[in-house]
Each structure stands twice: as structure tokens, then as C-alpha cells.
Amino acid sequence: MQKKRVMTLVLSAVLAMSALTACGSSREGAPASAPAATEEKTETADAAADTSADASADAVGAGFEAGATIGISLPWLGTQNWKEAETMFAEQLSAAGYNPIVQAADQKVPQQQQQIESMIENGAKVIVVGPIDGTQLGSVLEKAKAAGVYVIGYDRLIENTEAVDGVVQFGSVRTGVMQGQALLDGLKALKGDAPYNVELFGGGPADPNAPNFFTGAMSVLQPEIDAGNIVIVSGQTDFTQCATEDWDNSKAQKRMDSLLAGNYSDKEIDGVLSPNDGIARAIITSCEDAGQPNPVVTGLDAENESVEWVWQGKQYCTVAKPTKDLVAKTVEIINSLQAGNGMPSTDVKTDNGKIEVPIYELDPVVVTKDNEKEVFADDPDRMALLK
Ligand code: BGC
Questions:
Q1: CA-CA distance, 210 to 263, in Å (whole number)?
Q2: Smallest Cα–Cα separation from 60: which of 5, 124, 119, 154?
Q3: Atom 9 of ligand 1 has which residue's CA nearest to it?
Q4: Which among 79, 83, 157, 323 is the best mutation to test ligand 1's pocket, defined by most ligand atoms within 8 Å of the CB?
Q5: CA of 204 to the centre of ligand 1 (A)
Q6: Residue located nearest, by CA, to atom 6 of ligand 1
Q7: Ligand 1: which residue has its CA nearest to atom 8?
Q8: Most buried one in 167, 215, 258, 312, CB count within 10 A?
Q9: Tens-place pLDDT, residues 16-58
Q10: Which domains does the chain have, with CATH numbers?
């Protein structure tokens, strides 16, 4: 871990607070700005390894002890990306010398609030949160901030609170744009000339990503609907009609069953917008059960089973957003905080309803059968599925 030169930061509370609202970021090696109100901070060359009471009390802006406790609060383990995150955070944080507490909350908001409370009580210096509901963690995260804990959103935005230092994610609107474009491309490639019969699905409405995925996709699809090239036979085009409570695949499958029974007894369905892979497989299964020819279906996550289905031509595409990279980026930020360098700088910011949150964005990739081997060239586990 990089050690810093002796430096003394004298910051008035006012200055420090303005650093907070400006999301106080600094480049590696530059003087750190403190993201919360503080008095005088002194950092020594040994700060990174210093376990003295002084250093650990100085949690914000001046780094913290190398073996610090880091809390990871995940929303559930219902999709592969969260299971991967659980394992990879535990491994990567332990390898970096931290003491990780990694917990998942089974889609239950009070459980997630309670888990975060106990991370604060256990002295976590950073808490990384993938919220079940982006708007329901304000008070517990404000408690974390008051205790000098850094709060990083993971994969999902944390909304309506000042108590967040940054979010690591793939960009949910642009992911949705990719899904919408892939659906359109797939229809043109596999279903002949327009018009195409299509249905739309969204993810769990509490998850801030879900409406954004849908908005992004609709920015591509709505003009095609308006031009008559895409026909939403059910007429259900609002996110609220298309959302899938709790990202529950079985609910999506039931909705697809009834859409097919009610609207497609005399027609074929050509394509379905799906927000992730689990829902994609539920939709495809429903179409199979109804005796429909395989429609063009989108996805997200590059889950193992969907990686196989894309390879077999059962699912048209998925979008890869590698957990390995997202976790590594998060650990890189934690290392910066630990060393006293504050949050890294970023030009991307998102309004969370209260503040402009710094966003650390990685690039998602659309995966079809055509580029699958290329995309997973460095991922031996997924490559092994392409047979
Ligand atoms: C994640 C997806 C995941 C979904 C359901 C979203 O917030 O971005 O990767 O499939 O949650 O777990």
C-alpha cells in the first residue's frame, strides 16, 4: 500500500463541510480534502499502518488503520451478480488485509437497515451498500456518517440522502439503451421486416436501476413504437405495468403466461424486452410452454445459464457487467480512503434527489452469440460454458 508523506491538513469545519457538498475528492498523492466536518488532522508517513487510538479515531479524511473492518451490505443473493459480489468482496478485502463483514438482506428493507446498524456498531470504517430500496436507507446511513463512516453505493444509486460519498456502477440508463438497441437489432436480424410484436418487462420497482434500465430502453423503442415498427400488443408500455416486483422470476413468468394467453392466441410474439437474465429465462420458458416460436429476448448479468442459452440461440443477448471489475473498483476506492487520499476524483455525477453523487462508472457490453467468445476470452469459467 502506498504510504504518504508527512502532511498536515488544517481544515475549518466550514471548509470541510464545503468539501463535503462538493463531494471532496482528491487525486492520489494530492492533499486529501476531508469529506466531513473535522478539526485539525495530522497524517504521518505511517498513517496507513497506524493502529493507534488517534489514527482510528480519525476515520474521516485522514485514512484509517490497515486492518479496518469494512461492511458490505447486499440486497439479496437472488441473482448471480450478488452471489459473486458476496464471494469476491470477502476474498478481495481479506487479501488486502481488511476485516470484511459481508451480509445480504433477502429483499427485506428492515433487515438491511439492521445489518448496516450492526456494521456501524462493529466499527466499520467504510460501508458499501447495494440498496434493496434506494430511498429507504437515509436515516441509518446518516447515522453511519455521524460515526465518521464512508458510505459507497454499489451497483445501485442511494437516493434522497446526503449520506453517500459515491457510487460504483455500470450506468443504468445507458445499460437500458443497450438493451433497447439490442432488441431492435435482434428483431431486424431474426424476424424479417417490421412490424414486430413485442412485450416489455421491467425489474423491481424499488431498485433505482430498474426504472432507469426501462427509461434507457424506451428511449430507443418508443420512436419505433410511434412509427408503427414495433407493436406492443398488450398495450402495456408504462414502467409500472411492466415492472417485476422484487425482481421475482416467477412473477415475470406468470405475467408472460397471461400476456400470451390474453393477446397471442392468434399471433406470434417476435421479441421481449427483459431487464435481466433470470427474467429472460422465465419469459423464454413461458413462450416455450405456450408453443410460441423463440422470440428475441434481451438480458443482463451474463449469468452462467444465460451465457449457455445465448450460445445455444435460445436467448438473443445478455449484457455483461462483470462483478469482478465492480468489486475491484470498489476495493480500489476503499484503499484510497484507507490511505487518507479521500474519494478519487470523477467527472460523472448523478442527482440523487438531495446531492450530486460522484459516480465511478464501468462499461457494460452487449453479448450475442457473435461476440460471446471475444467478450469472455479472459473469463475461463464462462468460456467453459461455450461448447
Ligand atoms: C442489478 C442487476 C440484477 C438485479 C436483480 C440490479 O440492480 O444491476 O445486475 O440482475 O438488480 O438482482
A1: 25
A2: 124
A3: 301
A4: 79
A5: 9
A6: 209
A7: 155
A8: 167
A9: 333 333 333 332 222 223 333 333 323 333 333 333 333 333 3
A10: 62-164+323-362 (3.40.50.2300), 172-321+367-383 (3.40.50.2300)
